[in-house]
Write a structure and sequence with these properties.
Number of strands: 27
Number of helices: 6
Distance between the termini: 135 Å
Shape: elongated
Helix content: 10-25%
Structural class: alpha/beta
């Protein structure tokens, strides 16, 4: 689903080839100058049938005709002539005679044919010829005597050449680039380049070389390619005299039996201007600490695919121009700052596919220019070596380690690409506020928590790869933290539950307007949708009723409901209080009336009794009344009957 873009890193490494190399490759590629336009003339009276011609640059391309081309009718002022991918087995006398007519010819390319011989004196009259390309044929020797002195680039690669004559280049004093790779050459003659003092590029990779004469190369040689040979017993002087050598490609160049060369390796320090050296795939078991001390100009060192268990202390000390160090696919265990010290120029470090378990906390902190760091395929359990200090990293690769704890990487302000595929992460690392972040690969971990707040403040993010994790659903409220420019969110091979709680549905996709590609995402549950593409699940099953109510609205509604309930309770309590208050007030007002009524009733009864006694004239009846009314009923100035006051009365108690 995701095609991760290959980062453009290591600009100071293999991309740095000389201007001469670039020019040579442009001219040597058979199809590179196929038929530029305008103007383009094809199948006309002025262009050979089946060819295409561009007379603006005087180019004629008669490639892919699958025949022994008769070139005599080609326009004579042509400067660039392609006869590639045909069935030509020789440049015979007729074709050579025809070629002699093209006095302005500067480049001739006859690649991917079946040439075994080239007729003598075929190029004698071509005094402006600078480039000859006969690669991918069946030639067994180098055409020599008739090659004009003007030739600067000669490509004889992918042929069957076995030997090189010492005087072979005598007629080519201006030769600057010679390509002999992928032939069957076994030895190089002494002083091979003595007649080619201008030779700058020599490619001998992919031959059967076993030894090299100490004085085989000239003083002006700048690029030497010896990869994929079988060299042994080189000694320490095989590069003597190569004062201007800048590029040495020594990949897989040594014999398996040359054990001495593989232990305590040291570069023979004759080429002090060397800027790039490739020692990969040579079975090197150790390197002495001072191996590169004589090469202060080094910009790129590649010791990958060897058997190194240790990078010695001080190996890269003093390499002030070093920008690229590659040591992947070795047996390294520990990495410390002592390897490079304060090599502040380092921009690209590749230590992938080793057995690294420990990286010192200050290993990279002095590398202020470091842009690319690859520690994939090791045994790291944490990334504490990145530390709290800011680095200038743009690409960080930690694939296929044992990292379980999600690191905090938001101090890497310039980070563009993060790769942590195949670890043991349980959650997404903190990547907040990384304004330059573009790609994140967290595939094949153990991530189950999918809170996208980890990407908050990363507006440049285009790709997030979460393939092969344990994600069941995504917190819908956290989707707002993903940038609007997001193009890829890879959720393939997860444990997605395709229901309304998933978080990703048609409504959310329309809301955030991402350009997401979701056609490969499958459901893991519920059972009726297991194995079904997410895009095939009915949208009705992906939308929960009212599930989209914002959190703030829910909180506000809850507060309002609480206020209403509180008001109802307060109203009820106030109403009850008022009822109790009115009842108490009524009772207080009723007390005096009841007391007076009771007193008046008692007085009335007492009066009736006294009146009866008077009428009877009986002292004893009066006394009885007194006894009935109490001891104080007939004496004193203020008497209470049943608690009520009555006025005193005076009576004569006479019979």
């Amino acid at each position: 689903m995701i095609g991760w873009r290959v980062p453009q890193v290591g600009a100071g490494a293999w991309a740095r080839v000389s201007y001469i190399t670039i020019l040579a490759l442009v001219f040597l590629e058979g199809g590179a100058l196929s038929c530029p336009s305008p103007p383009l003339i094809s199948n006309s009276s002025t262009c050979l049938r089946g060819c295409c011609c561009n007379y603006t640059v005087e180019l004629v391309n008669c490639s892919n005709l699958n025949q022994n081309v008769q070139i005599g009718v080609i326009r004579q002022n042509v400067r660039i002539l392609h006869l590639d991918w045909n069935a030509m087995d020789t440049l015979d006398r007729g074709n050579c005679s025809a070629l002699s007519r093209y006095k302005n010819l500067k480049m001739l390319s006859v690649t991917h044919n079946r040439l075994t011989t080239i007729n003598a004196n075929c190029f004698t009259d071509l005094k402006r010829l600078t480039t000859l390309n006969f690669s991918t044929n069946a030639l067994t020797q180098i055409p020599t005597a008739d090659v004009p002195y003007t030739v600067q680039t000669l490509d004889l690669s992918n042929n069957r050449i076995r030997t090189i004559n010492q005087t072979v280049f005598k007629s080519m004093p201006n030769l600057t680039a010679l390509y002999l790779h992928n032939n069957e050459i076994t030895t190089l003659p002494s002083k091979m380049a003595s007649n080619t003092v201008k030779l700058k590029i020599l490619s001998l990779r992919g031959n059967s070389l076993t030894t090299i004469s100490p004085d085989a190369f000239g003083p002006n040689l700048e690029e030497l390619y010896l990869a994929n040979n079988n060299l042994s017993s080189l000694g320490h002087k095989w590069l003597v005299g190569t004062f201007n050598l800048r590029v040495l490609d020594f990949r897989n160049a040594t014999s398996e039996q040359d054990a001495d060369y593989k232990v305590e390796w040291k570069y023979p320090g004759f080429a002090s201007k060397l800027t790039k050296i490739d020692l990969s795939s040579n079975g090197l078991r150790s390197i002495i600490p001072t191996a590169f001390d004589s090469n202060n100009a080094l910009q790129t060192i590649d010791v990958s695919s060897n058997e190194l268990q240790l990078l010695p202390k001080g190996l890269l000390f003093g390499r002030v121009n070093l920008t690229t160090f590659i040591a992947h696919s070795n047996l390294l265990v520990n990495i410390s700052r002592s390897i490079w010290g304060k090599s502040t120029s380092l921009e690209y470090i590749d230590l992938s596919n080793n057995s690294i378990t420990q990286v010192s906390v200050d290993a990279f902190r002095s590398l202020g220019m470091l842009r690319y760091l690859d520690l994939s395929g090791n045994r790291l359990v944490s990334v504490t070596f990145l530390g709290p200090r800011d680095l200038s990293l743009e690409t960080l690769s930690l694939n296929c380690n044992d990292i379980a704890e999600a690191p905090t990487l938001n101090r890497l302000a310039k980070l563009r690409i993060l790769r942590m595929r195949g670890n043991s992460l349980r959650e997404i690392p903190n990547l907040q506020n990384l304004s330059n972040l573009e790609e994140v690969d967290l595939s094949w971990n153990n991530i189950s928590m999918s809170d996208m707040v980890a990407f908050d403040g990363s507006p440049s993010l285009k790709q997030i790869n979460l393939e092969g994790n344990n994600i069941v659903s995504i917190d819908e409220s956290s989707l707002e933290y993903l940038p609007r420019g997001l193009l890829i969110l890879n959720l393939v091979n997860n444990s997605l539950r395709c229901d309304c709680k998933l978080g990703l549905n048609e409504r959310t996709l329309q809301k955030y307007q991402w350009g997401l590609y979701m056609d490969d995402v499958m459901c893991a549950s519920p059972q009726q949708y297991k194995g079904m593409l997410l895009t095939s699940v009915p949208q009705a099953m992906m939308s929960c009723p009212r599930n989209g109510t914002p959190v703030k609205s829910i909180i506000l509604l809850a507060l309002l409901a609480g206020i209403v309930v509180a008001l109802i309770i307060l109203g009820f309590l106030y109403s009850k209080y008022r009822r109790i208050s009115r009842t108490n007030s009524a009772r207080r007002r009723s007390y005096p009336v009841e007391e007076k009524s009771s007193a008046l009733k008692d007085l009335e009864e007492a009066g009736h009794l006294m009146a009866a006694n008077r009428s009877a004239g009986s002292y004893h009846n009066l006394r009885g009344s007194r006894d009935l009314l109490g001891q104080g009923s007939v004496a004193g100035s203020c008497t209470k009957i049943n608690g009520s006051a009555i006025k005193p009365f005076e009576e004569e108690f006479y019979v």
